[in-house]
Design goal:
Length: 139
């Protein structure tokens, strides 16, 4: 709220609370899936199903094998997040590349800021150590 107040003071449209609100709504939508355990016979008896469907057009082995890899899980999570964004939050998928570009720019600015802070801390520490060594050598 304070940041939005500063944004309004500079004559811009407040946006931060709407972002926080969307994140909260997203977590509320996903809460039943994140914190509940569902009994799914298709997954608890997956080995039996794979044996029955092996060699048929309903063979599940390629999909299950892919889902167990890191790339498969990443792809599944990406699909889930984009689907939530599109269907539950009613956001246009065309804005994703713009949002990704903005995120890259913000990360770059953040990393530059961190590097500047690290530089000043190291410079201060180096000056402190040089003074300490000079004082120790003088005594």
């Amino acid at each position: 709220m304070l940041a939005d107040g500063l944004i309004v003071a500079f004559g811009r449209k407040p946006i931060l609370m709407s972002i926080v609100r969307k994140a909260y709504i997203t977590l509320e939508v996903m809460q039943p899936f994140l914190f509940n355990t569902y009994d799914s016979p298709g997954m608890t008896h997956i080995d039996d199903m794979m044996e029955v469907t092996k060699g048929t057009e309903f063979d599940l082995m390629p999909e299950i094998t892919q889902a167990k890899t890191d790339e498969g899980l990443t792809d599944i999570c990406r699909t889930m997040i984009f689907s939530i964004r599109e269907y539950l939050l009613n956001e246009d998928p065309k804005t994703i590349p713009i949002a990704q570009k903005r995120l890259r720019i913000k990360r770059l600015v953040y990393n530059i800021f961190r590097a500047i802070i690290a530089y000043f801390i190291l410079r201060w520490f180096y000056g402190f150590m040089v003074n300490y060594i000079e004082e120790a050598a003088a005594n």
